[in-house]
Amino acid sequence: MPKPTRKPAPVKKPRPDFPLFPHARGYWAKKVRQRLHYFGKVADDPQGKVALELWLKQRDDLLAGRTPRVHPEGLTIKDLANRFLTNRRTKLDSGELAATTFADYHAACARLVRFFGPGRLVADLDATDFERLRASMAKDWSPVTLHNEIGRIRVVLRYTTENLLIPGPIRYGSAFAKPSRKTLQAARAVRGVRMFEAEEIRAMLAAAPATMKAMILLGLNCGFGNLDVAKLPATALDLQSGWVNFPRPKTAIPRRCSLWPETVQAIRAAIAQRPNPKDPESGKLVFLTVRGVTWGKRTVGVPDAPDGKLRKNTADPICQEFRKLLKRLGLYQPSRGFYSLRHTLETIGGEARDQVALDAIMGHVRDDMASVYRERIGGDRLLAVVNRVHEWLWPVAEAKESK
């Protein structure tokens, strides 16, 4: 009979007055200003000599609430990741940055640390290193995903030059370029059309539960995406007059849209079936899950430990339920999701031949002087766009036959 294995003895401080303690995650740690800071793995430094030296170097900055200073020539990939994420975490806490965007940046930093190693000097990186990094990412990712990730990594690395953290600029070289426009267009062509036809949407509306039906109509009527629907407050709706005024959560760009009678009716039906909110903040929203919380993505926990792990739930409840509906109807295609309703509005709404009004509904802003000077757009122009989409979805001839 095998002998039971003994648990390793818990690590203790080298001496009673040692300023750091062995955290359960296996790091030497200290809590400063209500936040944990880590100073290397206990397994690599059992007596805490290196950890103590690092603590003494950073102590004054940490006690003062400052990010510890790093000598420019000694800035490592890990140092850069920690400083950049601290900067973005401040913006996250102030509401200037979305949780999903912070998660993307965190993943990009973790990728840099894994690929180059935490101790690699940033100033030592050259074009050959970035060529290898790009090749490793291109193996498993589509051109569109690669394009987005290179953009995020460049933002992280640009932080060093913008804040003078290294003596000179990062040397990317020509190989660390985003995929060309031609490559992206070819990838999109392979992926297929990302919109729905009128008969497909009518089938969805006939089969969807009340809440999903209202969401689909908002997606097509107003160009609302997943985040828009999840964060839609009741105060943004005027169901009596049939209008919605709701800035895009992603960009804070103002939007105003006329609601179809069918959309108003569907929203009223969804509100009538809405579960009791779990908390006051959820109670402000139009749509709630059966648990009484938001339909939006939830990023769970951003650890302070430098282990590169971001514990998050990336599942989007709206995407999941919409995909179930499409599969049940035999309409599912990998390239088409809830956001494709927004593509549909842009495509069909363009037939009204008023791109300015369509942009206002979609929440798009163009980089021209006309956009700077334009203060408002008449409701009749907005109404003409949504009426064109309504006529496409429910042709007059078919409407008469249905009666």
Total strands: 6
CATH topology of the largest domain: hpI Integrase, Chain A
Number of structural domains: 2
**Average pLDDT, to the nearest integer?**
86
Head-to-tail CA distance between termini: 81 Å
Weakly predicted, low-confidence segments: 300-313
Radius of gyration over C-alpha positions, nearest whole angstrom: 26 Å
What's the architecture of the largest domain, going by CATH? Orthogonal Bundle
CATH class of the largest domain: Mainly Alpha
| N to C succession of SSEs | EEEHHHHHHHHHEEEHHHHHHH
- What is the helical fraction, as a range of percent? 40-55%
What profile does the largest beta sheet have?
3 strands, antiparallel
Give the overall silhouette. elongated
Order of strands in the sheet with most strands:
1-2-3
Classify the beta-strand content into a percent band.
5-15%
CATH superfamily of the largest domain: Intergrase catalytic core
- Going by helix content, strand content and strand pairing, the class is mainly alpha
Q: How many alpha or pi helices?
A: 16
Structure report:
With 403 residues, the chain is mainly alpha-helical. It folds into two domains: 70-189, DNA polymerase, domain 1 (Orthogonal Bundle); 198-402, hpI Integrase, Chain A (Orthogonal Bundle), CATH 1.10.443.10. The chain contains 16 helices and six strands. The protein has helices at 49-63, 77-93, 99-116, 127-138, 143-162, 181-191, 198-207, 210-221, 226-230, 261-272, 317-329, 340-349, 355-362, 369-373, 379-393, 396-402, and strands at 21-22, 27-32, 35-41, 237-238, 243-245, 256-258. The strands form two sheets. A three-stranded antiparallel sheet has the order 1-2-3, covered by helices on one side. α2 packs antiparallel against α3 and α3 (99-116) packs across α5 (143-162). Residues 300-313 have low confidence and may be disordered.
